[in-house]
Amino acid sequence: MHIVILGAAESGVGAALLAQAKGHTVFVSDRGPIQPDYKQQLTAAGIAFEESQHSLDKILAADEVVKSPGIPEKAQVIQALREKGTPIISEIEFAGRYTRAKCICITGTNGKTTTTLLTYHLLKSAGLNVGLAGNVGYSLAEQVIEDKFEYYVVELSSFQLDDTHEFQPWIAILLNITPDHLDRYGYSLEQYAQAKLRITRNLDSNGAFIYNADDEVTGQYFQSAFLETRQLPFSLHHRHDIHLAGYYVSEDMLCTNLTPGIDEDAGVEVNTAGSPLIGQHNRQNTLAAVLAARVAGLEPEQIEAALATFHNADHRLQLVGEIKGVRFINDSKATNVEAAWYALDGIHQPIIWIAGGTDKGNDYRSLLNLAEHRVKALICLGVDNAKLRTAFDPIVSHVEETQSMADAVARAAALAVPGDVVLLSPCCASFDLFKNYEDRGQQFIQCVKQRMGE
């Protein structure tokens, strides 16, 4: 079969290497320049490729196309392929054909990376033979060439799910659905929700669907009656309107029941006090990961031991350090209102909040109540802070503006007293003053470390 790969980053190069390993002829096309390390991999493997263009004649010669998740449906090359009737699939779909490993797949608007890393950590710490793949930056297709794992924990964005058809997770996890990327879905929340719910379409009776019963949009669009798999809803509270598989009985004690509604006495408690994760949304992420670990056969003792040794990805509610009784927390990954809400909600000490950047059409109303009660000062870090100031000037007693991270950290440190938290949770994209959210978070860490060394 002649397979064309569109996009030559992590997923595209992984798919190309797998296609070649399985005996297909392969051609890779990227509309932009290909990063040197990916180009080197393709060259070393002898795979034909082009960059900074899409040659339609070569692409339309494909029997099947594997598409990068970053390419939108409206792209000219995709429209041409659709017109010809060429099958288009995702890297995840392609990889799924060549593995019999059990895939634990995680999606949701917020929290997917944390939940994916935590689930992987729980399983690996218990000695399971497990790989990590997907949106966390590791190609599933490339790992499937050797296919040495019995389990994969896979983070999936809606874009990666869009072109899956036969791919079958063993466990599917849906954390939440809130408006994001709606430009890719005709500005329709329903279309976006249905993209997320594609994760359930091939589940069978051997698998499980773990989902957040507290999430309104999931409840609105999820048709539970049509799913032929074990359904394991979770909630932060012990609700009586639904048979829950997981819920909290106290702040750091959760209860899991893998047969909800059948045996109400089958609940097993897990203590989460050892977890370093901060905030209500991370309690939800922890519930989902623990439920997946329980389905995979882990005992409470194994889970509790692993929770205590978990380190989350950088820039997600990451405790950077403490200076004179003031904690500094880096949440640079919070590029939307929802993520910033989780951060403000999860911290119960007085907050000096550093926010701002490139506004993505943000509506700050959901943050006003939290800001009024928890934020003692707001430091706006952006080129244009007018919208932030309009929203928060009336309710936060001290608001000021800075144009550099060094100034923002210096001002925050000056305003803070022992017991306060300085929180970088920007609520906005980073591209006005920084290369990306990692650069923004890294500069925050450097500024805090410099002050710690003084």
Describe the structure in your own words:
The protein has a six-stranded parallel sheet with strand order 7-8-6-9-10-11, with helices on one face. It is of the alpha/beta class. Helix 14 (368-374) links the parallel strand 17 (351-355) and strand 18. It is built from 17 helices and 20 strands. The radius of gyration is 23 Å and the shape is globular. The mean pLDDT is 94.
Question: How is the secondary structure organized here?
Answer:
Blueprint: E1 2-6, H1 10-21, E2 25-29, H2 36-45, E3 48-50, H3 56-59, E4 64-67, H4 76-84, E5 88-90, H5 91-96, E6 102-107, H6 112-125, E7 130-134, H7 140-146, E8 151-155, H8 158-162, E9 171-174, H9 189-197, E10 208-212, H10 216-221, E11 230-234, E12 246-250, E13 253-256, E14 268-271, H11 280-295, H12 300-307, E15 318-323, E16 326-330, H13 337-346, E17 351-355, H14 368-374, E18 375-381, H15 386-392, E19 399-402, H16 405-415, E20 421-424, H17 437-453
Parallel strand pairs: 1-2, 1-4, 2-3, 4-5, 6-8, 6-9, 7-8, 9-10, 10-11, 16-20, 17-18, 17-20, 18-19
Antiparallel strand pairs: 12-13, 13-14, 15-16
Helix pairs in contact: 1-2, 1-7, 6-11, 6-12, 16-17
